[in-house]
Specification:
Elements: E1 7-11, E2 13-19, E3 22-28, H1 31-39, E4 43-47, H2 54-58, E5 63-66, H3 90-106, E6 110-113, H4 115-123, E7 128-129, H5 133-136, E8 149-155, H6 160-165, E9 168-173, E10 178-179, E11 187-192, E12 197-201, E13 208-211, H7 223-232
Parallel strand pairs: 1-4, 1-5, 5-6, 6-13
Antiparallel strand pairs: 2-3, 7-10, 8-9, 8-11, 11-12, 12-13
Length: 239
């Protein structure tokens, strides 16, 4: 890649955090996301939850990365909350939905990770399985707190993801929710062995791809981030 490095906005948490002598509400993102974007050739910027300005902000970006995080409020897809669903984070949900809408309007490349995949589905009218073990009968996608589980996924070979990763991949998973009804205009392009949807794409855009796993947690495999950042370059039109 030559010329200016693509500017990639990464959505973040609004959470209580501690540093030095302080413990306060903080806007933050895990450094793994920043490292993955910069190693793939981009420049990362944090997009903290806020009440306004999404459209103007997206106009200054070359790519949008929807990061992982807490569960999306079930009211966003017309459901009552499951007992295991996180309390809603209304500001973050509204902010990220506005960012995504602006990015889709501009055909800005979008990569969704875990929650980001689920947000992509909800934004297109889909819904979520609020507690995956209710369907699968086990905790295979989230085996313990703060512990990634390596999962095998099968990828549709004629998809964008298939062109990036091939027909199969081993990926680090950490989630208790999953895609239910797939939203309008989206294609499911990867599945786990229990047939949970592991990736969604919007084929009528340059690059709109969400994965249920955490590619940032595998620094040895940058293929997905490289394809995303390459498409985010103003000199590129496809991955």
């Amino acid at each position: 890649m030559t010329g200016r490095r693509p500017l990639v906005g990464i959505t973040g948490y609004l959470s209580e955090a501690a540093w030095g002598v302080w413990r306060q509400p903080a806007a933050l993102i895990p450094q793994l996301y920043v490292d993955a974007v910069t190693r793939a050739g981009g420049t990362a910027v944090l997009l903290p939850p806020q009440s306004d300005g999404a459209t103007d902000l997206v106009a200054r970006l070359d790519g949008l990365l929807l990061a992982g995080g807490p569960d999306i409020g079930p009211a966003r897809y017309g459901a009552e909350p499951h007992p295991r669903t996180d309390p809603p984070h209304e500001l973050r949900d509204a902010w990220e939905l506005a960012l995504l809408a602006a990015a889709l309007d501009r055909d800005l490349p979008v990569l969704g990770v875990c929650r980001g995949l689920q947000l992509l589905n909800v934004a297109h009218g889909g819904d979520l399985i609020q507690h995956l073990p209710d369907r699968t009968g086990d905790d295979g996608h989230q085996i313990a707190p703060a512990t990634y589980q390596q999962q095998a996924v099968t990828v549709r070979t004629d998809s964008r993801l298939g062109r990036i990763l091939g027909s199969t991949a081993k990926v680090p998973c950490y989630h208790h929710q999953a895609v239910g009804r797939v939203g309008a205009g989206l294609d499911a392009t990867a599945w786990s062995t229990d047939r949970s949807v592991e990736a969604l794409e919007r084929p009528d855009r340059r690059f709109v791809l969400g994965v249920q796993w955490h590619p940032e947690a595998d620094p040895a495999d940058l293929r997905l981030f490289e394809a995303f950042v390459r498409t985010s370059s103003r000199k590129e039109t496809s991955a």
